[in-house]
Amino acid sequence: MSDAAEVLKPKTHADKMDIGISDAHRREIAAGLSEILVDTYRLLIKTHIYHWNVVGPLFHSIHVLTEEQYNALFEATDIIAERVRALGHHAPILAGKGVDTSIELRASGRSALEMVQDLVEDHEEAVRKMRDIGASADEKGDMVTADMLTERLTFHEKALWMLRSIIAD
Description:
Elements: H1 2-8, H2 23-53, H3 59-86, H4 103-107, H5 112-139, H6 143-167
């Protein structure tokens, strides 16, 4: 019975991993990915709230696009969190830290144009952060994280193109 209890015992950071990336580099990459995860949740929530509250002539276009985007962002949260775990670290607990719950209050007074411009700013910030962390991961030999972030960058750059196209003159 003691063998079963030992198997079920949670592993700690003290457990050694040898995946070709130093402990310090894994810790640094996981910390960067944790920031990206928090930002992704914030953008997911904001996109979903804007999806519900958009009004005006662009309603249908923005409503449909934001639904596609918040679904993709939700899937991304799992992918990012699982990469943090694969690096030997715990995914961050988001309770009360980094996720702005006042978004809904600001959404009610915003025009569709303002909502889209706000989403553009957040996607641009995400792209900049992902480029930095992806380049750092690549330099540290973490090709998996770099590849994952390349895929995430592809999503965000396409989201930017779509959002900008909706509000173009």
